[in-house]
Design brief:
Number of helices: 2
Shape: globular
CATH superfamily: Nucleoside Triphosphate Pyrophosphohydrolase
Structural class: alpha+beta
CATH class: Alpha Beta
Number of strands: 8
CATH topology: Nucleoside Triphosphate Pyrophosphohydrolase
Strand content: 35-45%
Distance between the termini: 35 Å
Order of helices and strands: EEEEHEEEEH
Radius of gyration: 14 Å
Helix content: 10-25%
Largest sheet: 8 strands, mixed
């Protein structure tokens, strides 16, 4: 059986003196950061860019750097975290229809890294946010 691997493509933006991270409100599972499964014979970087496109609609991104391997507290695969850049002008918030789970609308927005996650954040994504912050993001 092949090893299942997960990727997390992260996008930051800098507004005034603060750094924000792109997040979304999942209609069934709280606030999250884009994450997905690597397909068979797919490179991690390619999977990160594909997942970013599928879940957010951002099509012109590229990999900036590898942030590291996150070990979530729940059982399952570890997550490869990549910092991505895009030349697209991203809005303050937008909706994107994702085909996951039969089709869901994700509401994207920016979370200031200096703000703690709210109770709306799914627990494993609160952990992921702490991991990202610990890497100096």
């Amino acid at each position: 059986m092949a090893l299942v691997e997960k990727v997390v493509p992260v996008i930051f933006r800098h507004i005034n003196q603060s750094t924000e991270i792109l997040v979304f409100r999942h209609p069934l599972a709280g606030i999250q950061i884009v994450k997905g499964t690597v397909e068979a014979n797919e490179k991690l970087e390619d999977a990160a860019l594909r997942e970013l496109y599928e879940e957010s609609g951002i099509s012109s991104a590229n990999i900036h750097s590898y942030l590291g391997l996150h070990y979530p507290s729940e059982p399952g695969p570890n997550w490869h975290v990549f910092v991505c850049h895009t030349a697209e002008i991203l809005k303050d918030n937008w909706k994107h229809f994702c085909n996951d789970d039969g089709g869901l609308e994700f509401n994207f927005f920016w979370h200031n890294l200096s703000d703690p996650p709210t109770s709306e954040w799914h627990q494993i994504f609160q952990e992921l946010l702490e991991f990202i912050k610990s890497k100096g993001a």
